[in-house]
Amino acid sequence: MRQFFDPKAAFVAALSALACAAISAPASAHPYEYCRRNVTSFAQSCSFDTLAQCQAMSSGRSGDCYRDPSLGDVSGAYAYAPSQLRATATVIRNR
Fold it and tell me: Is the pLDDT of residue 3 over 60?
């Protein structure tokens, strides 16, 4: 009778899969600062480090370059917030 499951081959396959997973390092996401939007199809590509790179890509292709809106500017996040929060709650007493 022919055997369909080979335990030695399964062990070698599992060992090689484990070795590949251990060797490979996860890619780190790099936040690009500038985006380009195609005027005709409205396709967006946020893969430019500088405005000059984006403008060079848009040259002759009809596109708009702008700063990535998903990048938050931490220094300006609370631009209009008061410098000190004050409690304005009033206590109502039952008489």
Answer: yes
